Amino acid sequence: MKKKGRRPVKSNDLRKRAEDKLKGKTASFKKLAGNDAAKLIHDLEVYQIELEMQNDELRRSQIELEESRHRYSDLYDFAPMGYFVLDKNGIIVEVNLAGAVLVGAERKNLLKKPFALCIGKEYRDGFYLARRKVLQAGVCRRFEMTLLRKGGREFSAELFIEPVKVADGKITQCRLAVIDITTRRKAEDEVKELAKFPEENPFPVLRLSGDGTVLYSNNPGKVLLEQWGTVAGGKAPEDWRMAISRSLKSKKNLVKEIKCGDELFSIVIAPVTDGLCANLYGRNITLLRHKAGLLRKNEQRFKLLSEIAGKLLRSKNPQRLIETLCFKLMEYLDCHTFFNYLVDDEKQCLHLNSYAGIPEETAESVEWLQYDKEICGCVIREGKCFIAENIPETGDPRTDLVKSFGIKAYACHPFIAKGHVIGTLSFGTRTRTTFSKEDLSLMKVVADQLATALDRVRSEEALLESEEKLQSQYAEIESIYNTAVVGLCVFDKDLRYVRINQHMAEMNGLTIEEHIGKTPQEIVPELAPIMQKLGRKVLLTRKPLLDIEFTGRTSANPDEQRYWKQQWLPIKDDDGIVTGINIVAEDIISDRQMEEALRKSRDEL
Asked: What is the pTM of this model?
């Protein structure tokens, strides 16, 4: 960059200024010499002053040149782009600070090094040819390439190369201006990628003007154009034009759905910022809507099953509830008939428990079915589901009965409880010829639930009957226990009374309640040692002790010696562990008295 210096001083002006400066200093010389000598001295003095003034001008010019050089150096070094000067062989002669920073090296390490070392290998040949063209033809060149930083890290750069001419016009060097365009290149790549988005998008992307004219459509968007019956440049249907108008006026996105063949699309109408057109972004929601439908159906199915299970669990008579539940299931399955048969073990045939979809007089004719007839009988015999589809076209004689009802598809499931078939549940439709897997699965689940509920009630009834029978038996045993003519009691493992009959309590002279929880030591202290010994022996050996005789006194008759014969029997659990002792005591004092009387009679004789 050239900097304006001081303007050169003309010789005439310089002499005039020198003479003005000399005025007043030459008067003394005129007195000493003649005119020639005076003139010579005057000229010398003027020349001297001219030289001094020229020296001053040169010094000021030198200072200004130095200042200009420093300013140029600062501008050169601190320029925002890198500058390189290369000789005719491509060797770096000069480089500014920005250039050194760009390639990640110090200036002193770059000087006298080939610039080609800073260029990516694939670009070196091209750079060589361009530099040679500049040196030979004296033209400028601009191009982009990949440069290398220290360590081999690459960055994108834009280069401007121009020739440098010397005084005789020869070109011996070239100057490079280098700009890092990595950020710009990245932004351009992003713009290019974004520009490809509509075409690469697998879903419809369109742009429509405010009046509904189709300005652009990607390839998937042609499905919408075909549905609309238009092409690019044509108009969208009226309802879509109105929707676009509303979106532009409200500056808000709107969503519309459109059916294209078997596919359903959700279209978002998004107004463009300028408000003159709108972008349409489509999404295929066919599968999503299908899954949503399945989810709703599964929710309904779960709700139905939960309701059925809840009612069956709460009901004490599920047999009566079957009709209500099967009506709901029939409605859910879009069926027209159902039949519920239960096994009658006494008559060895099936009895119609509940039904729907046929006249009452017809139901009376099929109230009883034999095991060897019809589909239900087949299910009872084989114990597995029977599915009859496309009944009008089938020749299976087992379907003749349901075919007479106008049924086209029929599924009969067994009621199985504890491995036994106790009935059947079947559904029929007059509009479809087949059932879906989901429908059949639901029928089976409900049939299993109903079978379980019926079996539960039957089990409860059997249990109740068994409990009543056991209670009756227990009452009989209790009566026998309490009215027995022998003493009966039960000891636990600690030899405490846990049960005793009236006869044994009277033997000991206490009430039944006074015995419970007490030990022999507390009830019959005189007999306690022998009883404890016998009890420990039974607990240890787990064997009974039979016909044990011993004598003693009790609180019932403290002054009378009594005689007993006892049986000590261990009570065992299912594992053979002794949990208590059952004692049977028989009062044999009368026998002893009779023996004593006989002995006395023999002695007297």
From this structure: 0.45
